[in-house]
Write a structure and sequence with these properties.
The protein is an all-alpha fold and 213 residues long. Helices cover 58% and strands 0% of the residues.
């Protein structure tokens, strides 16, 4: 419980700056590199697909509520909705919770698309340039593209989760280049908790106000 209190307290400092770290280069086997490259290169669907109407309605409720909550960070409605649609799609595609990815983005870049850390990490999810060369097409500048950056971030976190056999705490440490240190994982877990939705925050009026503008 203590680390959660500390994490939330530290999170209050984030509007001034993100907490980007320095993902460490590690040699990849040919099979892993191939799988990650394929995951990054796969063409995205234009829209999130839903198996039935209730699932579609749940998604719209999520989108509306999250849009309302993100308004201060992203005032433009169109940009905000596009950002959330991409986060939702790429997170689900990688087997991650969208709220976790939003929390990670808040901690890494404070929602700044063109953020650059002192270590050279780029974009919303603060991807290190070596990833573009290792599993991408080598175009580092593309890491500032919203979808490209969030896809890389989700694929990389999924990769670290697989390495750590599902241990999110250690996977987050790897993502930040601070494996074994508690500060960064605590911040992201605290942010994730703040972005998680309750039945109250998924109320219908929020959906109407956000999606009808």
């Amino acid at each position: 419980m203590a680390w959660r209190i500390i994490g939330v307290a530290l999170l209050c400092l984030l509007p001034l700056s993100g907490q980007a770290g320095n993902q460490q280069y590690e040699p990849l086997s040919a099979s892993v590199r191939g799988a990650l490259s394929a995951a990054v290169a796969e063409a995205p669907q234009l829209r999130v697909q839903h198996k039935d109407y209730p699932e579609r309605l749940a998604y719209l409720s999520w989108l509306g509520s999250m849009s309302d909550r993100l308004q201060r960070n992203k005032p433009d409605f169109g940009a905000r909705r596009n950002f959330l649609e991409i986060v939702y799609y790429e997170a689900k595609r990688a087997g991650l919770e969208p709220e976790l990815v939003i929390g990670l983005i808040q901690v890494e870049s404070n929602f700044r698309q063109h953020a650059v850390s002192s270590a050279g990490a780029r974009g919303y999810t603060q991807v290190m340039p070596f990833w573009a060369k290792l599993i991408g097409d080598g175009e580092v500048r593309k890491l500032f593209d919203t979808r490209v950056n969030i896809r890389f971030g989700c694929v990389i976190l999924r990769h670290y989760l697989d390495i750590e056999q599902g241990n999110l705490y250690r996977a987050l440490g790897r993502y930040n280049g601070s494996l074994g240190k508690p500060d960064y994982p605590n911040l992201v877990l605290g942010a994730w908790k703040r972005w998680q939705l309750t039945p109250e925050t998924l109320a219908a009026p929020s959906v109407t106000s956000s999606l009808s503008r």
